[in-house]
Protein 1
Amino acid sequence: MAAHEEDPNRPDPHQDPMHPGDPLTSDAQLEKRVADTHGLPGDEMTALERMEAEIEPLVENVSPDLAPAVEEFMAETALANEAESAAVADDSQFSGTAGLEGASFATAEVGPYISFQHVCKSFGDFVVLKDVSFFVNPGETLCILGRSGVGKSVSLQIIMGFLKPDSGTVLVAGQEIAGLTEREMQQVRQKVTMVFQSGALFDSITVGENVAFPLRERGDMREDQILLVVRGLLEMVGVAGMEDHLPSDLSTGMKRSVAIARALAAQPSAVLYDEPTTMVDPLMGNLLCELIQRLKTQLHLTSIVVTHDMRFAEKLADRVVFLHEGRARFFGTMEEMRASDDPILCEFLAMDELVLPGRPMPEAPVEKAL
Ligand SMILES: Nc1ncnc2c1ncn2[C@@H]1O[C@H](COP(=O)(O)OP(=O)(O)OP(=O)(O)O)[C@@H](O)[C@H]1O
């Protein structure tokens, strides 16, 4: 097609892509729609304007024909997250600092979005978590650190309700999850979603169908709207044009990017990431790290990241919890961790210095010629 010819399939830039037939969403219309959807008062407009301005950099690499759809979709998420954070802050269910004695409570004046209080978990006789307590406040990022097998992934699975703790209290989205039915837990999982190490994509359907899945589940979006948001989200996470591929065609890093796009399609308040930078090259690792950082600041996402990568933790974490022998050996800010003289923690950090990617590895002993 010649450059000047109009593509009949190209969305009309003067039409609202989320609500075709409407003129392009004016600020007032968008304010009303988001207010209707999330029950926010009409005077939230200034917040919404700020939100859209914040979100702009997130969609800067998205094609102009897709950007408005993604921007509006993400603005809804960001605004809902602000409201959610406020609701958690007001929630009287939060039972204070029980089980977190000795931790840093510098910013704990709002209730945590997710917390463990004295959590224990065993598999048969094998005790994984003996008495673990930590929290993450709304909009903050917690990194879970520790050697292999200390229960980092088990902790994430407890938060998602896939595993049940033997004792202790777990708050997710500000509410205690112990007594919830599976159906209630599914509602919690709409707010708090997880990006697995493997991506955990559905292998038999395309990348686009994977990302469209949560959008179709909502039941209130038309197919053409869904396609716009899917393509836009894939561009946003750096895997443009992959919608017709099967997950098996993708590299590990690309699968994780698609898994993040699918998680975002559910408009979550919190995302749990299990080893997002493991087994990808340093460039892909940096891209994923930057994406997670942008999602945190621009969407006000609460995040928990299980990682072995200290540089990643340094960039992202508001707080860290260091698990060791079934306990939260350290819980506090990155700065407090660096200042700690705990020998076990110091040894862990020293080991990390030795194997940090990008730094020269310690010289291997030269083998003697036989
Ligand atoms: N469903 C399960 N049944 C029995 N044991 C389990 C189960 N899930 C995890 N475990 C055990 O719990 C321990 C902690 O596992 P987990 O996956 O949380 O470790 P991790 O800290 O994430 O380690 P890594 O960094 O190697 O991924 C391991 O010994 C694991 O074998």
Protein 2
Amino acid sequence: MSQDGYYIRDSTIGGQAAGKGFFSNRDLTGGEPIAIIQRPLMASLESERLKDTCANCYVWTEGSAIGSRLYVKRGITVQMCAGCKRFRYCSKACQKEAWNRGHKHECKNLKPVADKELPKAVLGCMEILVRRKQGLIDDQTWQLLCHLDSHIDDFKANGNYDGIELMAMGTSQFSATQDTFNKDFVAQMYARILSNSMTLVTPTFEPLGILIDALLCHINHSCHPNTYIVMDGPQMQLRALRDIKKDEELFISYVDPTMPYLRRQSELEQRWFFACKCSKCQQGIASQEDDWARKLASLTTHNRELANEEIKRAQDHSVGEPSDEQRLATLQEKTFNSYEEAQQQSDPAEAIRTIEGAIAFCTESNLWLAHHQPLPALRDELIVNMLAVGNYEGAWFECAKRHRHAMPKLYPQIHHPIRVVQTWRMAMLAQYLASTGTEVAVGADMALIAAMLINTISVTSRMSHGPDNAFTKSVQLKFSEVEGELLGRFGSEDAMNAAIQRQVKLLSEMGK
Ligand SMILES: C[S@@+](CC[C@H](N)C(=O)[O-])C[C@H]1O[C@@H](n2cnc3c(N)ncnc32)[C@H](O)[C@@H]1O
């Protein structure tokens, strides 16, 4: 099977069989599109996003933080389907499209349960079953979908099968498909969705829900991926992260590849049921992500005592003197726990206190550098919460630190989509600070810094997202605005470039 820049065949990763996988059918360059899918087979929104996101084109109408989602049309709203009272659409055209794609066959079944919150995987599974029953999914796509492993035996082994059976019963009933699919088949399909779905995201990677695509869900995982997926509404693009040779396997990362080895392994084992033997995992804790853990020599008396206390607290009885490795693992656990705690805290001020405590601990312990997790994750969370409480200046300095220390290490390719989006958010924050006349640092010209960053993104977003993505187009529009303004302000390109050089230096200093 071959299309675009890939073909599908059996895969072996680190000596173990990994089912089918995607392979490149020619040499590819970083930033090049490999496959474009206009719409995944199924996408299902989170309960919260059902309220403010179009269930057809997936435009998220809320949450546009200080201009970073300029690609969302101003004033856009969603209207509820009068029948099922669950899905909302941003236009009559979107409603009609969803209706014809299959909603007309499930709308009235959903009506009696309008006030029940149904999990996204149940809604997604219902959609798939109803559409297949009505002949709206062709045989080839269906076979490809059913080929994806349901991991039903793994769910039985880990004790989650009962929950799956229960959800499958509800799915059958609400979709009125019992006459077509038996209960074991539905349980398998439900399990297949749980273990093969990807995250539905906005062009700037805000999570919206889950999706299944019969073709793209055949891509295997690596913690050192060579491709990634960007979305633009329902459109998915698989793009090359770096140069790839013909016949190399194409990988995306199912988890955050910047996390340490043991955390990646455990997440992959729990959600996707495999022990990763990718090129990075074969190095174990010898890769950059675990650098900090090799710093046994930096374990000061204070750190040792702190770890001892934590270990004692976790165990009812003393099991002798812990090793330094155990102490390190405990300290790491402690910082990740703070990160997870902050994510759960709904009050941003409280979350900021938790995060600042954890960052101070990481820094004082002298174990972590700015690019070692969970420090960058804590900093990302800090920025979000500072923006939520209106501390734009504080958020700016955190962005500057992230830009200087974390981004180049975590996302070395200039067109890495996360790097591009984070830089864009930073540019929009700089522009906001310029508009309020805030003096962030002596001599800092925030309008010029914003323009410099936008200039960079106007180039890199074309590679990360492709020239036709709505995000890229909004960046280009912004760039043409600031470019004109700047030339007008400085008169000549030479004067502008000299000013830019000064601001580049200042930006780096602000990130110290
Ligand atoms: C989304 S599917 C990918 C397609 C899959 N290979 C297939 O043929 O159905 C995810 C599953 O593929 C397998 N898989 C993906 N990446 C792997 C890897 N690096 N090593 C081993 N198995 C992997 C695991 O069974 C995982 O649950």
